[in-house]
Amino acid sequence: MQVSVETTSGLERRVTIQVPAAQIDNAVDERLVQTAKSARINGFRRGKVPMSFVRRQFGAEVRAEVVSEVMRTQYVEAITQEKLNPAGYPEIEANVNEAGKDLEFTATLEVYPEVEVAPLTDLAVEKPVASVSDEDLDKMTEVLRQQQAKWVEVERAATEEDRVNIDFEGFIDGEAFEGGKAEGHDLGLNSGTFIPGFEAQLVGTSAGEDKDVSVTFPEDYQAEQLKGKDAVFKVKVNSVSEQQLPELDEDFFKLYGVEEGGLEAFRADVKKNMERELEQTIKGKVKEQVVDALIAANQFDIPKALIDNEINALRQQAVQQFGGPADFDASALPAELFQDQAEKRVKLGLVMASVVESKEIKAEDDDLRAYVEKLAESYQDPQEVVDYYMGNDQMRQQLESAVLEEKVVDALLAEASVNEVEMSYDDAIKPVEKAEAAEEEVAE
């Protein structure tokens, strides 16, 4: 076997492989002999078919089978010999494929890039530092009460804290418009879900009252034909309801899994969950800074095959997330929707793998168990969760990836400059985008 490798562009390689004619012809002859022993042909007893007839009848088919098998095996040997690390499947094409001539074929493939991770010694990371105060705990308790609140009809005028049930129809220049009508709609008067100004005009109304509500659709409204238009909604108020919060009693505590210990045990359990959420959020924010810095500091070509695979995975995730039908063809979703995310994920995976290799980072069983035990704390039966993850090969692989990723971030943080920033619990758990927007508003 003779092998030559040509770099065609970036990560693409064209491997040309020659296999001696004798190797192919001998393999074809051996296969034809085996075929002759079992072939059923009218006019001949089994095993007595002349080889000339067998070759004429089956020669082309047998040669195609042999050549296909030889190209696959010789390709593997060639990339091993040339120390190529293919990313995805090759395109294999025969150039010379004739009896008595050396077989020549080419395999076009992409290889993994050689990634040498740039040090992050200049990286400055901001790490939020916060704790759960009694005031934070009180706020969360009220949030949980609101989740279990009931709405009770009242015989009085509505306040902005109430909910009304309404029938309505919208008109522009006296004409009803499509999508502007509903019956029996529940609307919280401080929900902010309707057109600006709509809810406020219903404050003070009572059950059975009719009200004309005048509004202007925002310029960025989703319906093109309604943008910036003045409208009048004819509204009938069917009922007014006020929110009734549950008492902090044993029945309420049981809704959140606290069977004993009363208010003290309930608050302790809620605080523990809040602290867990706080820790995870802070880790996520720090990790995001490291990940963004890694991607920005390391520029290299990414194999198209890996990006395509990631796009297909993201397509499947999207279908599952949004509840598409079981027979929905995920490939119908445009690749452009997932291109940027796929490139980022592939690049991050390659960089992470390079760090793991260069720093000889490993995920031991003790690391996996500690990680999943932390993960299982919020479940009703933590041990069942631990046993499930540790006893399932696929779950263990996911655990290993998560643990390795966490260790990589820790290793890179050791090289970076970490600046701890004191902040409130609320600010610490805000998504980065919201936190930055809040800072900009304060600055203005």
UniProtKB/TrEMBL annotation:
- Domain (PPIase FKBP-type) ranges: 161-249
Q: Which N-terminal residues, if any, form the signal peptide? A: none
Write out the coiled-coil annotation as residue ranges. none
Per the record, what are the reactions this protein catalyses?
[protein]-peptidylproline (omega=180) = [protein]-peptidylproline (omega=0)
Per the entry, what this protein does is: Involved in protein export. Acts as a chaperone by maintaining the newly synthesized protein in an open conformation. Functions as a peptidyl-prolyl cis-trans isomerase.
Domain comment quoted from the record: Consists of 3 domains; the N-terminus binds the ribosome, the middle domain has PPIase activity, while the C-terminus has intrinsic chaperone activity on its own.
Its name, as the record gives it, is Trigger factor
- In its UniProt entry, the species of origin is given as Oceanospirillum sediminis
